[in-house]
Amino acid sequence: MRASVFASVALFAASALGGVLSPSPVEGRELKISRCDVSSATLPLPAPGTTAIAAPNVSVAKPKFIAVGLGVQNYTCNAATGTYTSAGAVASLFDISCLASSPLFPHIQDIAFALDQAGPIAAKTLEAILGAVCLKLGDHYFVTSPSGTGISPKFDFTKSMHDSNAFVLAARAGGVAAPNTAEDVDWLQLSNVQGALAKFVYRVQTKGGQPAKTCAGTEFSSVPYAAQYWLTAVSGFYA
């Protein structure tokens, strides 16, 4: 299995390194954004009529960034029910916009997840590939909700963009169970609450991230996952 994983990632590396991103000649590993146009890319969604996720109206909000997220979904144990409750997530977001026309594109999250889980050597290979072409756009994590109750997802590109407004704090607008396996976290549509990075964020093509069915004796769990994140923007938002 590992041979096939490394073969796949070699193709992924060739696609990425062959094209459009390169380190800054001054800062070395600082992000140099490719700005590949993904405005006409088609967001993958389950069959019409089976999802609570609304397909983006490209006349209103066109795709601006497509990223692969790699990180963990966090959970705390609800002692009363014996099941896990979501406690947010932490992930790094890497630009895959310039690979949108590649035959590997639908599988990038699977490749990244497999390498991340295949052991230290494979994980270092993945880090070297992503770092060599400076693909990191930013980070995804959770913060206290503006209401002061609960937590909200944040997508933070402020460091790579050198812009304090290049973030989006979002709220859930819709979701559906992942169409592939029960081990994958839900596909989601998120809408902007604060920030100028995007109007909507979609989490699709998920891999992993679901907790164990019961949590007796374990208060906290971090479950590895990968996913595609599509950020769509309108005039007046980050472009």
From TrEMBL:
Keywords: Signal. It holds the Pfam family DUF3455. Coiled coil: none annotated. InterPro entries: DUF3455. Transmembrane segments: none annotated. It comes from the Eukaryota. Residues 1-18 form the signal peptide. PANTHER family: CONSERVED FUNGAL PROTEIN (AFU_ORTHOLOGUE AFUA_1G14230), MALATE DEHYDROGENASE (AFU_ORTHOLOGUE AFUA_2G13800). This is Malate dehydrogenase. It comes from Exidia glandulosa HHB12029.
